[in-house]
Here is the input.
Amino acid sequence: MKWEDLQSSENIEDRRGGGPMGGGPRMGAGGLGLGTMVILGLIGWALGINPAILIGGAQMINNMRQEREVASPRQEAPRQSAPTDQLGRFVAKVVGSNEQVWSRVLPEQKGVRFQPPRLVLFNGYTQSRCGTAQSAMGPFYCPIDQRIYLDTSFFRDMQRRFGGGGDFAYAYVISHEMGHHIQNLLGILPKIQRAQQLAGSRSEANALSVRAELMADCLAGVWANNANKQKPILE
Here is the structure.
């Protein structure tokens, strides 16, 4: 993937080496049933998608319908300057490319103004308004604070545990989470959360999470197609 010439985003918070002060992680696994986990795994395998991305996102959506706010907010570590390491710069470039694409596509196709999210880089765990972000959860989007949370060790896990890797695979992960932000701007995530609250069973509620994850995959594809048309990035 040719990413070096992409425009960098300024909406990056680098908390690596920091983390929240005043307590450790406390967010649960999200309550996904075994059947849903298996379905997401099979979908990921069939589509060539890292299943951890789908499962992590579905867990966060499931958590969101159970708890809208963290009961006792904690003090966060001071914000760091823009990342200067290669991985941090890569993330900023991919986010910047997403911002360029969606600032054009969203108004053109949906008449909705694009408001960029912030992406938080962290190690281990950090605090979000959706609860504690932990590396074990994988990347996720929090609609309450409109931030994407990414522990960059996840990219190493993709290579070691799932046999996937490479710049475009990493860019896909980021763009998938950006897809959840687009869903939020379009009012889709709130509708999903309301539908889950009215669902007659956990399996029905989890099925809605699966649909949300697949739509985020589609939106990641929208980014890739448009970004490659603007400036060829695929090799």
Q: What stands out?
A: The chain has one domain: 12-230. Residues 202-230 form the longest helix (29 residues).
